[in-house]
Every structure is written in structure tokens, then in C-alpha cells.
Amino acid sequence: MGKVLFSFGHGYSARALARHLAPRGWRIYGTTRSPERAETLRAEGVTPLLWDGDDIADALAEATHLLSSAGPTEAGDPVLARHRDAIAAAAPRLDWAGYLSTTGVYGDHQGGWVDEDTPLTPSTERGRRRVAAEADWQAIPGLPLHIFRLAGIYGPGRGPFEKVRQGTARRIVKPGQVFSRTHVDDIAQVLAASIDRPRPGAVYNLCDDDPAPPEDVIAHAAELLGLPVPPEVPFDDADMSPMARSFYAESKRVSNRRIKDELGVHLLHPDYRSGLRALLAEEG
């Protein structure tokens, strides 16, 4: 029997994994809420399933591997709210299951380092929901679960270049603020490496080697484009949405040692400079 991935919330990161697995002969099911997106997935070689459809349990019964990328809401994890029983029934047959979480579960460490053993002390509502969702997934008996805590994701279509070109990029400066990041292609290779070396119960941080202030990333993007570096805007003076401002409530450096030691991963983009150069090259 061939390998079959069932992907709940088949979005940006899951599509990158599918591009990694499809050439290896995998069959891939991916859920979406949008009929228009379903056709895009089909063109990428993924069998699309509408979120509200009746065929999800049947497809899950074929799966050898399961991935969930859907974020929790105030009502909890949407996948488990609707499909917990089907997932629990499939669990004994699965070789691997993955849940994409966030490094936001660690909370604020004032620029200090965290790793997978750091206590979970989220300071935002988003982070608290993720902690609860992780626990809900871990509670499913027999599920060979692996949790991946992702730093800020960037990649094709999600880089800073367009805002820099348009003159709308801002270098918001909050002293001491650093973020960790991860390129979507590194997410895909880490997930694939875990699939090849399953260790149920494992938790992995997905991030690059170089936590950095956000204003440095914008400045480097402008330099690569040969455009003026946007001026600095003090954080206290910046006009930001509550959501954007909440990201600055936490500052930490995230260790990625475990993905290297356990999974043998060599990052494609070990820092934002490498990642941005690759994005610009892809743009041509």
C-alpha cells in the first residue's frame, strides 16, 4: 500500500510539504473551505475535500499519515471539534501525525533563549489557545503525534519586498525586540524528515539560526532591492492594529538544535539574509 497524507487545513505550509512528497509517489488529500481553492489544490496534484463535505471520514480511513495546520479559535480546535471521532478511529492505523503549532506557546522571555523543554507560559490569547489545542491533540489515544512549533513564516508571496517597493514598509523599533523566523521550504523539509524518522510524542521548534530585530529584516530587503532603507518608527508611536501590536508583546530567541540533532536537518535558509536572497532570485 502506498503512502497517503491527509492534510487538515491544507494551506501555505502544507502545500510546501505536498510539493516535497508528491514526487515520491504519495497520494495527498487536503481540506479547504473554498471551492475555488479546491481547484487550485487539484491542479497541484492534491485531492481536495471541502471542509463541510461528507467524504472526510472515508479519506481518513485511507490515510497512513495525518497533518493538521488549522489554528484554534476561541471555541477550540476546529478539526477536533468536528472530526475527533474519525481521527481517533484512524489513529491506530497511522504511521505518523503532525500538528503545526507556534512558538507563541512559550510567551515572553525578554529576548532570552527557549527550547522544547521550556515551560509553556503564553502571554497572548492566541498562545493560550495553542497550548490548549496541543493538549487536546495529545489526549487522543494511540495517535502517533508530533508537534511542530513554528516561528514567523516567510517564503514566496510572504516576503517584505512588495511593501518595500511600494514604500509602505515600516521599520518599527522596540529596543530589545527579536523574533525567530522560518522559511516555508525549511518547514517542508523538517516535516518530511520527521515522517522519515517518526518519534511519536516528539516536539520540535521550527526556526532558523538567527533571531533578529524586525527592523533589520526590512533594512536588508531594501538593500537587496537597491532602495532607500525605510526610516525607523518608535514602537510607542507606531500606528498598528491590536493584532500587530500583540506580536511585539513577546521577545525570545528560539533554539532549533533538536531538529538538527534528531532529524539531521541542514537548513536551506539558516538566516533571513539567505532566505531573502533566495526569494529575490525566485522572483527573477
Automatic annotation (TrEMBL):
NAD-dependent epimerase/dehydratase domain ranges (all copies): 9-206
One family name in Pfam for this protein: Epimerase
Which PANTHER family does UniProt cross-reference here?
EPIMERASE-RELATED
EC no. given is 1.1.1.290
- Molecular function terms, GO-annotated: 4-phosphoerythronate dehydrogenase activity
Please state what the protein is called.
SDR family oxidoreductase
Keywords (alphabetical) are: NAD, Oxidoreductase
